[in-house]
Specification:
Strand content of chain B: under 5%
Number of domains of chain A: 1
Structural class of chain A: mainly alpha
Order of helices and strands of chain A: HHHHHHHHHHHHHH
Distance between the termini of chain A: 47 Å
Radius of gyration of chain A: 26 Å
CATH superfamily of chain B: MetI-like
Helix content of chain A: over 70%
Structural class of chain B: mainly alpha
Oligomer: heterodimer
Largest sheet of chain B: none
Helix content of chain B: over 70%
Shape of chain B: globular
Radius of gyration of chain B: 24 Å
Number of helices of chain B: 12
CATH class of chain B: Mainly Alpha
Number of helices of chain A: 14
Distance between the termini of chain B: 32 Å
CATH superfamily of chain A: MetI-like
Number of domains of chain B: 1
């Protein structure tokens, strides 16, 4: 199609380009803020992790991580806790999401308040609540003894038990939300078709429904696992100093020893591991679904 | 009961055969809500041992909280930081979301992912990194420092909420306004903004809560007269179980509920999933 160019076509095009640049520049302040308070600091730590005390390049901090068993323990504990938390969340969250997904919308939305309430309650408030419930003279131990269920106070907090309970409580909504929305999206006609072809309800669940809900389950489990890796507050309070996850180790290295190199190298390894897991997972699940599940 | 013998849906087993499923779901829901709710009655207990149900009721821990200069100072700091973070991050976040959405440049995607990085980086790494840089800049224990760091954490949320609103907004409306003589700025404020305002309000509420609830970064960069409430609460939790925290927790739960109710009324579900 031939167009007779308007005499000011060139000028209009230039104006459009300038305007687009101006619009693009609106992102400037936000980007600047993220660069100054996030990318520069993390980059700087990355740099520090490769310097020894004399300020020369060295892999000392990374070598120490391999040699000193306490660092290895922090990492294995972090993975163990994250794995257990994710597993428990799946066992508790999947059935609830399943039941909720079959309720009428209105009823499901009301029940969803139970899921969203902890999601929006301050992390510290919930951690405190668990401390109140679990400690030696806490609600659960007093009632357990009063009812004659057990005789001496159970060690429920200031150890791994307490940390796990607290973390499962915090992470459960992150699992339930994506699983619930993926279950809602499953077309019930598939189940009817399965029944038509002679599958029993149980068989139809295992062979049709479960596989269809897997993407949501995978996305939910992944976000739970990744978030668990960086936990600090819950192990610090409910672990009572006995549960040293990587983040707690990083904080101690700074607060007690002012050892920036050691802390940075731990942080870099944690970050890289998180990134690798996310990358590996993005080949399995769509990542936008993951972010959508976690932050809405 | 008849209900027990009915199938759950035409293709499923009867309600009676899967009662265990309902029991588990009920228990999980209790597990989710009870811990938060149990703090409320305990905050009105007279005893300094946390018993449930409390034997005697009193407002002792609330008096303790409102009578303490350091708790009051920390609360004021947290509110101030929350409000300033809300203003800063909503402003720059909305600008960025709008700019990137309308400019459609080649680098928009890249810039967008830069703005989302604060979600993926482990928060402890952000905490010590910001601390390190703030020591050099002299921003440790300052309100400016807290607000800048918290805004960085809140920007991804604002950007996500506002861009998803812009995606479902028909930009032609703005074009119509401009063809009728409105400037770009005028068209944005009088045509586009009123239609995405629910999301902007949601984003603002989210960013206030992000700042108000933030613990780890505050632990490193706030202190002295600019200690945040969360920092003081965390310190108190590590040392002893002070029932004053139950009173503060109750107040925080009430505040959060009010804010979320506001964002629900104005925000039409954008802070919650359907």
């Amino acid at each position: 199609m031939t167009v007779i160019a308007a005499p000011n076509a060139e000028g209009l095009r230039r104006d459009a380009a300038v305007e687009r640049l101006q619009l693009f520049a609106l992102g400037g302040p936000a980007v600047l803020l993220v660069i100054v308070t996030m990318i520069v600091p993390v980059g700087w730590l990355f740099w520090l992790s490769f310097l020894n005390d004399a300020g020369e390049f060295s892999l000392e901090h990374y070598r120490r991580m391999l040699v000193q068993p306490s660092y290895g323990r922090a990492f294995s504990l972090t993975f163990e806790v994250s794995f257990l938390t994710t597993a428990i969340c799946i066992v508790l969250g999947y059935p609830l999401a399943y039941v909720l997904s079959q309720l009428p919308r209105r009823a499901a939305n009301i029940c969803m308040i139970a899921v969203m309430l902890p999601f929006w309650t301050s992390l510290l408030v919930r951690t405190y609540a668990w401390l109140v419930l679990l400690h030696r003279q806490g609600v659960i131990n007093t009632w357990g003894i009063k009812l004659g269920l057990w005789e001496a106070p159970l060690p429920l907090v200031h150890n791994l038990n307490g940390t796990l309970i607290g973390m499962v409580h915090i992470m459960l909504p992150f699992l339930i939300l994506p699983v619930y929305s993926s279950m809602r999206a499953i077309d019930r006609d598939y189940l009817k078709a399965a029944a038509n072809l002679g599958a029993s309800p149980t068989r139809a669940f295992w062979l049709v429904f479960l596989p269809l809900s897997l993407p949501g389950l995978l996305a939910g489990s992944l976000i739970v696992f990744i978030l668990c890796l960086g936990f600090y507050v819950t192990p610090a309070v409910l672990g009572g100093g006995k549960v040293t996850m990587v983040a707690n180790r990083i904080a101690t290295d700074i607060e007690l020893f002012f050892n920036w190199g050691a802390a940075s190298s731990l942080g870099v390894v944690l970050f890289v591991l998180t990134g690798l897991i996310l990358y590996a997972a993005s080949r399995l699940v769509r990542l936008d679904r993951l972010l959508g599940g976690g932050s809405h | 009961m008849n209900w027990l013998r009915q199938p759950a849906t035409p293709t499923q087993i009867t309600h009676g055969k899967r009662l265990w499923l309902y029991v588990i779901s009920g228990l999980v829901m209790l597990f989710l809500i009870l811990p938060t709710l149990i703090v409320i009655p305990m905050s009105f207990s007279e005893s300094q041992y946390l018993e449930f149900p409390p034997r005697e009721w009193s407002l002792r821990w609330y008096k303790n909280y409102f009578g303490s200069t350091s708790w009051m100072l920390a609360t004021a700091t947290s509110f101030k930081a929350g409000f300033l973070t809300m203003i800063l991050s909503t402003l720059v976040g909305t600008m960025a979301a709008y700019g990137l959405h309308t400019a459609r440049m080649r680098f928009s995607g890249l810039v967008f992912s830069i703005l989302l990085t604060p979600i993926v980086v482990p928060i402890i790494l952000v905490g010590i990194g910001v601390f390190y840089v703030y020591v050099k800049l002299g921003l440790v224990n300052t309100m400016a420092g807290i607000v800048l760091a918290h805004s960085m954490l809140a920007i991804p949320l604002v950007v996500m909420v506002v861009s998803s609103a812009l995606k479902s907004y028909d930009m032609n409306q703005e074009r119509v306004a401009r063809s009728l003589g409105a400037s770009r700025t005028y068209a944005f404020f009088f045509v586009t903004l009123p239609q995405i305002r629910f999301s902007v309000i949601s984003g603002a509420v989210l960013s206030f809560l992000t700042s108000f609830d933030e613990v780890i970064v505050s632990l490193f960069i706030s202190g002295g007269e600019n200690s945040t409430l969360t920092r003081n609460m965390f310190a108190a939790l590590r040392d002893q179980i002070d029932p004053t925290i139950a009173a503060i927790s109750t107040l925080v739960v009430v505040l959060t509920s009010i804010l979320l109710a506001i964002s629900q009324i104005f925000g039409k579900n954008s802070a919650l999933p359907d």
